[in-house]
Amino acid sequence: MVKSRFKAAVIGAPIAHSLSPRLFAFWCERAGIDGDYRAIETADDDTAFTETIKGLLAAGYRGVNITLPHKLRALQIANEITPRARAIGAANMLRLWRDRIIADNSDAEGFLKALQFHAPEFSGGAALVLGAGGAAPATIWALREAGCSYIYITNRTRARAETLARRFGSNVEPVGWEERGKLVPYADIIVNTTALGLKPQDDLPVSLEGARDETIIADIVYEPSLTPFLMQAKKQGLKYFNGLAMLVFQAMPGFHQWFGAEPGPAEEAMAFLQKKNLAKPKTKQIVLGLTGSIGMGKTTTAKLFGQYGIPVWDADSAVHRLYGKGGKAVSIIAARFPECVKEGVVDRDCLSARLAENASLLLWLEENIHPLVYEDQQAFMAAHEQAPAILLDIPLLFESKNKRQFDAIIVCTAPEDVRRKRVLARKGMSAQKLETILSRQLAEEERLARADFVVRTDKGIEDAGQQVAKIMGEMAVKYPQLAALDWPQRDK
Ligand code: NAP
Asked: Which of 31, 267, 302, 422 lies 20 to 30 Å from 242, alpha-carbon distance?
């Protein structure tokens, strides 16, 4: 087997439930490719999205699949937009090519091929589309391609259906949500693109009473595989299909484009995903953020969380790795500050002194070194993706552009005199240096105000351990998956 390295990802929020990483892993194995495809949770925020894409571009990723809630942002960030992505008004695929970002949409092709796969006899007619969210325009585009001459679109929020109808023009007509049942007897195909059906207690998106025998029923949701809407179709003996084939068909172009290989027949991938347990969503991993100013006891606190079996990543150690012998950042620093690299290792004191001379150099550092730190963080997350929880120890979590969504942020703190004593006892530290460091950081009150939990570290490790135990206890109530951690035995 010839081994090569290809990197791609899927970005969304939430993303833990995504089947795409397993689908790509299946195709890689089938094609004999050593590929890397990971799910990256990115907050619903423009800056967070842009930072993630830039980080992936810098880290040599070839492409990204985009899901909720970023499909519009994906279009906005692109240097180039394919005609179909422009017509649909959303992108679910970004090709990262040298320093360019090319936006495309394969959701539409995915639905079209799924329709052709499940109902090859379908030749068009009237369609009723339920929902006008992110997935609806791709569905409308596909229905037109499949020969639908008239498409009714209905949505709980009518204005969204109207906007969508305007985008597509004359043969797409918005219909009031309350009126949708009246159109059922006239539809040759009815497609549910709403989120209704994801939860067992959800209402039906529409009653299929009065549907004609030959009407095709589709739901683009694939988990659960048989939504109450499809169950209705089954009971009435109608032809129906869920979103699994769409998922597989929309993913194929990315695999082909980014990994340079054929994914093989869709049936094979669908059978793989349908295997017992595979189509079940993974329990969401809990991501904890730990932060605190210099000398506030972060490292010790991180170890206390580590006692629960929570894998810990810390940004400082990542920087040490990058600046150490053979580290990825050494040559970058050497090119800009040759005097700060000695025997293949970055001299951090020398670098700090250079950076202190000119504030704009901090920006240079951010652009050149932060993507490498981010890559280190991503590699850690991929290595621990099965862990019920992970902890990211990031000193400047609030100050940096880190917009990752944390399930909880823990701030370490101590009274000012305790902190000063700790920091000034460190080798090479002075009161002036401490002042300079603090001048770049958030005020302590503000940091504490943003915390979900606070650990006070001035009363010894045992006391801090009890605070961590209390935090873990509170979190275990909110996140039952934490029960799977390795809880330390405590004396009663
Ligand atoms: P979205 O942008 O959030 O849109 C959600 C839609 O559901 C909107 O039309 C919304 O109406 C409607 N809705 C939500 N709650 C409702 C309720 N209680 N009653 C009536 N309508 C309700 O989501 P999306 O991106 O379109 O995705 C929708 C579903 O399709 C998701 O489950 C997603 O996983 C699935 N999907 C599958 C594939 C695939 O490959 N199989 C691809 C894309 C998406 P309002 O406008 O009134 O809020």
From this structure: 31
